[in-house]
Amino acid sequence: MNDLVKLTQQNEIAIITIDNPPVNALSPGVPEGIVASVEAANADPTIKAIVLIGGGTTFISGADIREFGKMTSGEKPRIALTPKLLIIEDSAKPVVVAIHGQALGGGLETAMAGHYRVIADTAQVGQPEVKLGIIPGAAGTQRLPRLAGVAKAVEMCAVGDPISAKEAVALGIADRLIEGDILAGAIAFAREIADKPVVRTRDRNEKLAGVDPAVFATARDTARKTKRGQPAALAAIDAVEAATKLSFEEGCEFEGQLFNECLFSIESKALIYAFFGERTVAKIPGIGKETATYEIKSAAVIGAGTMGGGIAMNYANAGIPVIIKETAQDALDRGLAVIRKNYANSVAKGRFSQAVMDQRMALITPQLTYDGFEQVDIVVEAVFEGMALKKEIFGTLDTIAKPSCILASNTSTLNIDDIASATKRPQMVIGHHFFSPANVMRLLEVVRGKDTSKEVIATSMALGKKLKKVAVLAGNCRGFIGNRMLHPYFRESQFLIEEGATVEEVNKTLYDFGWAMGPLAVSDLAGLDVGWRIRKEFRHLEKPGVRVPLVADLLCENGRFGQKAGCGFSKYDENRRPVPNPETAAFAEQVAREGGIERRSISKDEILDRCMYALINEGAKLLEEGIALRPVDIDIVYLNGYGFPAWRGGPMFYADTVGLKKVLARIEEFEAQHGSDLWSPAPLIKRLAAEGKTFSSYETQA
Ligand code: 3H9
After folding, report:
1. Which residues does 234 contact at the CB level (< 8 Å), separation at least 6?
2. Probe ligand 1: pick from 18, 20, 23, max atoms within 8 Å of CB?
3. Fewer CB atoms < 10 Å away: N or C end of the chain?
4. Domain 5-264 maps to which CATH number in 3.10.560.10, 3.90.226.10, 3.40.190.10, 3.40.50.620?
5. Interhelix angle 306-317/354-362, nearest 10 degrees
6. What residue ranges of the chain are covered by domains with CATH 1.10.1040.50?
7. CATH 3.40.50.720 region(s) of the chain?
8. Nearest atom in ligand 1 to 61's CA
9. Which strand ranges, in their side-by-side order, compose the sheet holding 124-126?
10. Which uninterrupted H or E stretch holds 508?
11. Residue of 32, 39, 67, 109 with catalytic role
């Protein structure tokens, strides 16, 4: 029919195949090709039924997301998919949709416009639009409740997670589960139903009646909590509710209005930016697809603490056998017990079976020696942050590991080149900075040293994907991307309490902005002693006369190490709920008194700007230094490792939405008040602001 959609025939069955790799998105030409094929099949008297299928590995992954930006910029009119789907649904000959891989968003909407759906047992279907800050825009909110029932449609449209083929059949979204060849199964099904009268999904109203209004109220409550700041979730619920109150046509009209409002929102722009950003960070300038990679078939982790155990789980989850080494039996036993407990929790929650847990546990070999290290393809060191110990370990590894073995350190702050200097193969040494809990958090900072080879970097990025992480490449500096930026952000949060803000005000302001937790709450959770230990190690680098935050140190000196001690910036009750800690206020007053700091009441705006602009200013410096390749790398680090709200796109995207001129003006105000050592504006911000540009216009210098 066109380059993207082919019409072929097997006896009395027409086969429409979408051929738009890699994921058969509904790019311009695809919906038109499907419609033209349906019309041609209807006009052909030899055809009795139609099969619609995706070529390659999947059905349709949804609308072409790249088109949305063109629509909001006015370059293109809004995609009008709904009327095209009506033509499919109005086909006089039955349309059987064959789903393999994924039917997502517009893909599921297209499938639901068919009269029947058969589904491969490994396939998934879903309405993930809410994750892009929009709602289904091609009658998904109207047809899905007619097939799956209202409660499930609300959940699928407001939460956005896909469901399995089995569940799709159980719910009535699909009519038959196919094991084996999906096309053959679809053709056989089409022959069975070819002579039956067609029933349009939009006429199937049985599941819309008698819905308990609590379904919508509960979903709205959940959405307000779990999708804070994201109006699309509430809009999706409104649109599904409309299906129970309005005719199909009116419901589609209402859905269309809400879709438009969402599409033009800043939240949607941010989430779409984040979607493509996750894929952009995998592309490293100068390290193309032609770069050779090492095969990683086995691994070893040194250290069975929280990080080491979590890292070992990642390897086992990916089916890679992993040795986990400790120095003492009791530490090894403790580490293994934690791993076992984590897996058992997942089994109890139904995430996977006991058999899967057994397989994963069997891939983990606990031991106290370096036996077998000569065979593994990668070693990840995850011992505590001390340079001397790390160097000793890397020196030992250098004598044991095979030449092609990658030597990775999970350090969060230490210099990778210094660690590499303990070996005779610095080209094989790299940072693999996982985030706690390492079996849960998606971010992996891959830190390149000055001698790390391209092949080792390419292997690390590919390995990240295999371990189901979002791998972001960072340069070597203290704290790399994430923790280096966090330093001034945390600094300001403490300065604010020294100057008169309360812990609760600081935490709430940043939480209300959208962060998963306020900065002082994060410090308490991570453990104040961690930073205290690092500060002691780096004290010699502090510039005399420059103000440093002191409250956390005072808390640590008094054993207030944060949540684990029941007390840090806040106190924690038996349910780990924070309550104000009067000691913190007293320490803050003491620091202010001794340091000649004036105490005053501080506005929410100042709290937000001081913390956010400290973060952004440091991010700009990282770009200038080449530590971060592109603003999007910083944003993806913050979205996946630090609880930054995805619907704000990340710190650098947020700065663009504020406007760099405004950001710069505020940084200059803070510089005047607090001095250039703390607040000198990044030259990059000055330059971009002067040129009227944004971070998104920044071209990598790599
Ligand atoms: C929608 O449908 C709205 C409707 O209601 C209609 C309104 C009118 N568009 O992720 P991968 C690219 S909204 C354009 O690495 P995987 C992706 O950027 C949409 N491009 O593969 C990448 O490009 P590159 C609702 C897309 O196997 C390449 O394909 N649908 C799209 O790990 C490979 O992707 C969704 O939200 C797209 N829709 O995962 C689904 N999808 O190679 C979004 C992918 O240049 N997609 N690309 O970097 C996904 O969740 C995953 O891509 C998928 C495959 C699970 C499909």
Report:
1. 158, 220, 223, 224
2. 23
3. C
4. 3.90.226.10
5. 110
6. 487-701
7. 299-480
8. 56
9. 102-104, 124-126, 163-164
10. helix 503-513
11. 109
12, 32, 89, 129: the catalytic one is 129
Instruction: Please identify, by atom number, the ligand 1 atom nearest to the C-alpha of residue 64.
Output: 9
Name all residues whose Cβ lies below 6 A of ligand 1.
Answer: 22-23, 25, 61-66, 79, 81, 102, 104-106, 109, 128-129, 132, 136-138, 140, 276, 279
Dump pLDDT digits (tens) for 564-623.
Answer: 899 999 999 988 899 999 999 999 999 999 999 999 999 999 999 999 999 999 999 999
Protein residue closest via CA to atom 11 of ligand 1? 279
Asked if 162 and 104 touch (Cβ cutoff 8 Å), the reply is: yes
**Cα gap 669→676, rounded to integer Å:** 11
- Cα–Cα distances (Å) from 226 to 349, 640, 645, in that order, read 19, 16, 11
Kind plus residue range of the DSSP H or E element containing 231: helix 231-245
- What's the CA angle centered on 468, arms 465 and 471, to 5 degrees? 50
CA-to-CA distance for 451 and 562, rounded, in angstroms? 38
Best residue among 30, 61, 127 to mutate for probing ligand 1's pocket (most ligand atoms within 8 Å of CB) is 61
Burial (CB count within 10 angstroms: exposed 0-12, middle 13-18, buried 19+), residue 292: exposed
**385 flagged as catalytic:** no
Q: Tell me the C-alpha to C-alpha distance, in Å, between residue 179 and each of 123, 162, 445.
A: 11, 20, 40
Residue closest via CA to ligand 1's atom 39 equals 23
Domain 487-701, CATH 1.10.1040.50 — does that match?
A: yes
Q: How far is the CA of 276 from the centre of ligand 1 (A)?
A: 9
Q: What is the pLDDT of residues 103-141, one digit of tens each?
A: 999 999 999 999 999 999 999 999 999 999 999 999 999
The CA dihedral of 186, 188, 192, 194, to the nearest 10 degrees, is 60
Residue with tokens 């760099």: 660
Indicate which residue's Cα is closest to atom 50 of ligand 1.
Answer: 61
Query: Cβ–Cβ contacts within 10 Å for residue 226, how many?
Result: 11
| Contact present, 482 and 443 (Cβ < 8 Å) | yes
Q: What is the pLDDT at residue 292?
A: 97
pLDDT, tens digit (0-9, with 9 covering 90-100), for 311-360: 999 999 999 999 999 999 999 999 999 999 999 999 999 999 999 999 99
Among protein residues, the one whose CA lies closest to atom 15 of ligand 1? 279
Instruction: List the structure tokens of 488.
Output: 């001034």
Angle between helices 30-43 and 82-89 (to 10 degrees): 20
Measured between alpha carbons, how far is 416 from 634 in angstroms, rounded to an integer? Answer: 19
CA distance 701 to 628: 10
Token readout for 581 is 């800690």
Q: How many CB atoms lie within 10 A of CB 245?
A: 11
Contact in structure between 262 and 232 (CB atoms under 8 Å): yes
Q: Cα separation of 84 and 169, whole Å?
A: 25
- Given CA atoms 223, 224, 226, 227 in this order, what sign does their dihedral have? positive
Provide the token pair at 218: 């509960």
Query: pLDDT, tens digit, for every residue of 45-103?
Result: 999 999 999 999 999 999 999 999 898 888 888 778 999 999 999 999 999 999 999 99
CA dihedral 251, 255, 257, 258 (to 10 degrees): 140
